[in-house]
Amino acid sequence: MATTDIVIATRHFTRRFGDLVAVNNLTLEVFRGEIFGLLGHNGAGKTTTIRLLNGVLAANSGSARVLGFDPSKDGTALRRRTGVLTENPSLDDRLTARENLLFYADINNVPRGKAPRRIEELLVDFELLERADEQAGGYSKGMKQRLALARALLHEPELLFLDEPTTGLDPVASLYVRQLITHLSKHKGRTVLLCTHNLVEAQRLCDRVAVLEHGQLLAVGTPADLGHRFGKVHKLAVELEHEQVPQALEILKQEQGITVEAEDKVLHIIGAVRERIPALIQLLTNAHIRIYRVTPQEPSLEDVYFALHGEGENSL
Ligand code: ATP
Predict the structure, then answer these.
(1) Mutate to test the pocket of ligand 1, among 47, 87, 88, 162 (most ligand atoms within 8 A of CB)
(2) What is the atom index within ligand 1 of the atom nearest the CA of 44?
């Protein structure tokens, strides 16, 4: 990867609030055009990382280059080239959507001659045109979120920081936002750094993810890569003759260290490490069980996340 393709690079980046280390010795790189996800529990340091990278908060130690700028020194110049969607976007409720965007265009130096057309495009894209002249205070949460996203894109930033971009959106609006993020990255070459609690969304959307805990980086890589490195839960789907399912269940129940569930004519074997698969299949074939298909299932990002945190699924 050429250094010009590195959009964000941090080295030992650290931020404290009193005794609390919110971002701890963070070293990572984000490349041009990728969708990079920051994952972590509440309070893991995701929002603080975005604020540091966008130069609205200063680090206590370490360094960072973002689009070639030092965010602690060149924050204003940097923010002209970045767009941000914060967790609770501050729109002016007394202004209409159009006025909110016009105001933001002004403070972001979007040329007056260009701004109305750009705003019109965004109002259309985000399906806000019909209600563009109503006060934003009367908008639903989803409409406010779409307006905040439109605002983040107004000045065509090359780097986007999106904090929980689909929170509060219904499934249709969430899908729209995911497609938009993918389009911006894959067709327009924009780089997107997003925080999310939604691991299924991260798996679908992100090229690479970083898992944070107490401000520290636990792991970074593509979802598939992390699955191979950290996914402890090995799953295997085995398709059988339907009437042989009870017999197969009986045989596998005798085996230690695995859990078996039947779903129609498919057995799901959970917890079998790769090396054990041939022996398990042989147990079935020795009993004359006819097997039509054996499919290992890759560990999901969710499996990885909980393996890294070493705890149960309900705690996120
Ligand atoms: P969430 O998923 O809940 O949004 P997060 O991963 O974004 O969490 P941060 O908001 O970055 O986490 O917070 C990391 C830690 O830093 C938390 O313990 C938080 O209370 C603390 N923190 C963040 N901002 C401040 C601040 N301005 N003053 C004091 N503590 C802060």
Answers:
(1) 47
(2) 6
Residue-level pLDDT at 312: 42
Q: Is the CB of 52 inside a 6 Å radius of any atom of ligand 1?
A: no
Output the pLDDT for position 94.
94
Query: Encoding tokens for residue 76?
Result: 């204003």
Contact (CB, 8 A) for 259 and 245 = no
With a 6 Å cutoff on the Cβ, whether 48 touches ligand 1 is: yes
In the prediction, which pLDDT does 221 show? 94
> Could you list the mean pLDDT of each consecutive 10-residue stretch along the chain, which spans 316 residues?
82 96 96 96 93 96 96 94 88 93 90 91 91 93 89 94 88 86 93 92 93 94 86 84 95 93 93 86 96 87 82 43
Q: What angle do CA 81, 194, 202 make, to 5 degrees?
A: 145
Q: Considering only CA atoms, which of 53, 86, 52 is closest in space to residue 167?
A: 86
Give CA 256 to chain center in angstroms: 36
Is residue 130 exposed (0-12), middle (13-18) or buried (19+ Cβ within 10 Å)?
exposed
What are the DSSP E strand ranges found in the chain? 6-17, 20-31, 35-40, 61-66, 82-85, 159-163, 191-195, 208-213, 216-221, 235-240, 259-263, 266-270, 291-297
Across the beta sheet with 61-66, the strand order is 20-31, 6-17, 61-66
Q: Which amino acid is at 150?
A: A
Q: Return the amino acid letter for 290.
A: R
> What is the residue whose two structure tokens read 């602690």?
72
Measured CA to CA in angstroms, residue 287 lies from 44, 291, 294, 296 at distances of 51, 11, 17, 22
